[in-house]
Amino acid sequence: MPQSNIIGAIISYILGVFLVPFVIAFSKKEGLVDLPNERKIHKIPVSRLGGVAIWASTMLTFLFLVLLSYYPYGSLVSGILLGSSLIFLLGLVDDVYNLDAKFKLIVQILITTVVYLLGVKVDMTSVSTNLGLGFDLGFLSYPITLFWIVGISNAVNFIDGVDGLAGSVITVNAITLAIVALAMRPPNSISALIAFILAGSMLAFLTFNFNPAKIFMGDSGALFSGFLLASLSITGVMKGATIAILLPFVILAVPILDITYSSLRRIFKGKSPFVADAEHIHHKLLKAGFSQKRTVAIMTSVAIIAGAIASLCVSKITIIHYLIYIVILIVLMLVLSLFDIFTKNVK
Prior knowledge:
Layout: H1 2-30, E1 33-34, E2 46-47, H2 50-67, H3 75-97, H4 101-117, H5 141-158, H6 165-183, H7 189-206, H8 218-236, H9 247-251, H10 253-268, H11 281-287, H12 292-314, H13 316-346
Helix pairs in contact: 1-2, 1-7, 2-3, 2-7, 2-8, 3-4, 3-8, 4-5, 5-8, 5-10, 6-7, 6-8, 6-12, 6-13, 7-8, 12-13
């Protein structure tokens, strides 16, 4: 299956690079753009339908690989694909019509419930005793799964506030989850494959999202990506042994830290944790004098370090594989960023 991971990432990238310009043109034609306001950083209207290209390139790539027989049919993976597509539609409707936050939360809970019933669940802790024993979570499985998937989905949405930030962190997180999933015993090749496909789609989106961004992923892209990361962390990592249950907390450290900080801060101020503001970690860095690009570099570096720690916890070979992929990713991102600057100068 290793070749399918690389093939999946390449195909999803090519599809994404092809689709994003069409989405940008359509958004401008239909007026589906994100307008500047006091809470936002950008100064001009920008397309907010990047999630369409991310979802389409991810799903079309997976469909293509299904035709090549890389996909073992089953309710577990079907649940992930169905749930992520439903939450993408929720985000898309929100991008167009601006839904109420509480209504979105209710729909997210319903979608996660469907996915849970299809088998995507945290059903046993992987924290083992000296005798190698774990324990069944029983009735706690549902609320824990619900809290994890809904929480991570919204956490990823929360960090989408600076050009290139969410896309960069998601790409690093997806690659880390893929590598760790392959290192588990037994390995989860399908979770790894989907994670690599997501990384390719997100890298294509980033090609047009580096500062100054030509397109935003919107709630459709952020919720879709967050939902995938949360679900894949359950099926690909938490199903392993020993400390595997803790690894997703390390891998997804950046979005988890941001949503925890933001929610607690709002609660302590007597405000609803669902009301958006301009006091996330990336906003704090911007106010401290860092540019958007440096803010992205700082938070992406934290994600990379967290991924390295998680990989090292698995094995020495895993950390070597991780570092190889991350170096390749950094080089690609630098090339794409320099290419974007070059094309702007030419114009």
